[in-house]
């Protein structure tokens, strides 16, 4: 039996027991959805590979773009208890996404998305899907194809963003290799911040990252080394030229 597409219908009316600041707090679907535009994505389980490496992080990363395009909140639902979901959220550092524990599977069952994953020792879990909900009514659903395993083809953040606004562009992200007290590294980070490009900083000499690693990744032995959207830009002077070129083209 095919999983149901519930576009045009209201979300199930459910109360979620959650743990907040060491207190039990009941959260209702009315509170989550009424009067709001909400993107929901649901997945098989906290701490599972695809959910942790791709599904949740990308929604978190694109949250500012969703907000700029009229989305009030991004909600992640999984059939896990609130303690597991809270620990997963802390581990993921997903401050732009609200994680909701559907521990009893009531919401997922009401959506028709509760599936048997006993072969993995999971019991009953959610099928992977995403949806756009406006004032409690489901406008659009992206349901993963019903094939063996855990497909991840259409419920991703980029697909949802493209549906909401085909012209929306994802924010640029950077990775910068640095060393402590390096003035050129400080300059490069300042330039990225001024350009509105978020970055991840990797300090050479920490956590096993060595100059050998830097040479292997960037074919260079000096810092900083900057990557923007996965492409090597280079050192601070290269970054300055790159950003100046972008400004010139924009003008």
UniProtKB/TrEMBL annotation:
<dbReference type="GO" id="GO:0004601">
    <property type="term" value="F:peroxidase activity"/>
</dbReference>
<dbReference type="InterPro" id="IPR013740">
    <property type="entry name" value="Redoxin"/>
</dbReference>
<dbReference type="InterPro" id="IPR002109">
    <property type="entry name" value="Glutaredoxin"/>
</dbReference>
<dbReference type="Pfam" id="PF00462">
    <property type="entry name" value="Glutaredoxin"/>
</dbReference>
<dbReference type="InterPro" id="IPR036249">
    <property type="entry name" value="Thioredoxin-like_sf"/>
</dbReference>
<keyword id="KW-0676">Redox-active center</keyword>
<feature type="domain" description="Thioredoxin">
    <location>
        <begin position="5"/>
        <end position="169"/>
    </location>
</feature>
<dbReference type="InterPro" id="IPR013766">
    <property type="entry name" value="Thioredoxin_domain"/>
</dbReference>
<dbReference type="InterPro" id="IPR037944">
    <property type="entry name" value="PRX5-like"/>
</dbReference>
<dbReference type="Pfam" id="PF08534">
    <property type="entry name" value="Redoxin"/>
</dbReference>
<keyword id="KW-0560">Oxidoreductase</keyword>
<dbReference type="InterPro" id="IPR014025">
    <property type="entry name" value="Glutaredoxin_subgr"/>
</dbReference>
<keyword id="KW-1015">Disulfide bond</keyword>
<dbReference type="InterPro" id="IPR011767">
    <property type="entry name" value="GLR_AS"/>
</dbReference>
<protein>
    <submittedName>
        <fullName>Glutathione peroxidase</fullName>
    </submittedName>
</protein>
<keyword id="KW-0575">Peroxidase</keyword>
């Amino acid at each position: 039996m095919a999983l149901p597409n519930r576009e045009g219908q209201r979300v199930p009316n459910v109360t979620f027991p959650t743990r907040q600041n060491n207190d039990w707090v009941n959260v209702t679907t009315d509170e989550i959805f009424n009067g709001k535009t909400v993107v929901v994505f649901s997945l098989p389980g906290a701490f599972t590979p695809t959910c942790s490496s791709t599904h949740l992080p990308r929604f978190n990363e694109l949250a500012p773009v969703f907000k700029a395009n009229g989305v009030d909140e991004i909600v992640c639902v999984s059939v896990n208890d609130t303690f597991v979901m809270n620990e997963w959220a802390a581990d993921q550092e997903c401050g732009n996404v609200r994680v909701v524990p559907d521990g009893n599977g009531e919401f997922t069952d009401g959506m028709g998305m509760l599936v048997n994953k006993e072969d993995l020792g999971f019991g009953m879990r959610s099928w992977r899907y995403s949806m756009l909900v406006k004032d409690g009514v489901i406008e659009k659903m992206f349901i993963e194809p019903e094939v063996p395993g855990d497909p991840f083809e259409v419920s991703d953040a980029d697909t949802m963003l493209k549906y909401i606004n085909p012209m929306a562009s994802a924010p640029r992200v950077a990775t910068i290799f640095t060393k402590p007290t390096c003035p050129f590294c400080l300059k490069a980070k300042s330039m990225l911040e001024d350009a509105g490009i978020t970055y991840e900083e990797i300090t050479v000499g920490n956590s096993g990252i060595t100059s050998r690693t830097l040479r292997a990744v960037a074919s260079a032995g000096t810092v900083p080394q900057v990557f923007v959207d996965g492409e090597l830009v280079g050192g601070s002077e290269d970054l300055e030229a790159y950003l100046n070129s972008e400004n010139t083209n924009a003008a």
